[in-house]
Amino acid sequence: MKKVVLVGYMGSGKSVIASQLADKMGVTFVELDACIEKKCNLPVAAIFEKHGELYFRKLERELFVELIQDTSGDLIISTGGGTPCYYNNHELLQAEGVVSIYLKASIATLANRLKKESATRPLLANLNLDDLQEFIAKHLFDRNYYYNQATHTVIVDNKSVAQITSEIVDLLV
Ligand code: S3P
User: Fold this and answer.
1) For 30-43, how does the pLDDT look when each residue is reduced to its tens digit (9 = 90+)?
2) What predicted TM-score, i.e. pTM, was given to this entire model?
3) What's CA 126's distance to the chain center, in Å?
4) Does residue 148 sit in helix, strand or coil?
5) What is the DSSP-derived secondary structure letter of residue 115?
6) Strand, coil or helix: what is 36?
7) By three-state DSSP, how is residue 30 classified?
8) At residue 120, does pLDDT exceed 70?
């Protein structure tokens, strides 16, 4: 039984890549944020607003452990950008039966992607364009330690979804 876990900053492409990977490998794909939303019956931004980030992080931990321990079959798990950084979740990136992949994007790539959708992301919601790049740089610096616990790192800058997916498939065989 294998769990493939994708980690990386917001905007690194975790969901899109996980879905392509699932198609290519014929394995079920789950998005951790979607599991949390389903459990709360609220979108992530509303969970942050109504219950606070700590509540979100606790649920994120609980559901991440459930997915890693799921015994029903192989699974591709797309995490949230903060998942490995709380409650020792990073240790699960190296758990038995887990192969984790850090989708590594540069600050410029991330800022370029996130400027279009920062309004829907609670951690970026109050940032103007000028502050976004600086925020990402600092945040990424803090989070790098956790992302680097992944089994493999794949650079995503200037690559197509197909290219990234096939690089990951090569790492998994
Ligand atoms: C978060 C990233 C989001 C979501 C939540 C917190 C983070 O997921 O889990 O808004 O802490 O980086 P995506 O990385 O899928 O945007």
Assistant:
1) 999 999 999 999 99
2) 0.96
3) 21
4) coil
5) T
6) helix
7) strand
8) yes
Cα of 155 vs centre of ligand 1, distance in Å, is 19
Give the side-chain half-sphere CA count within 13 A for 57: 13
Q: For residue 81, how far is its CA from the centre of ligand 1 (angstroms)?
A: 4
Task: Select from 19, 38, 39 the least CA-distant residue to 30.
Answer: 19
- Ligand 1 centroid to Cα of residue 127, in Å, is 15
Query: What pLDDT sits at residue 166?
Result: 97
Number of Cβ within 10 Å of residue 60's Cβ equals: 24
Position 1 scores a pLDDT of 65
82 phi, psi to nearest 5 deg: -100, -5
Q: Who lines ligand 1 at CB under 6 A?
A: 10, 14, 33, 44, 80-82, 121-123
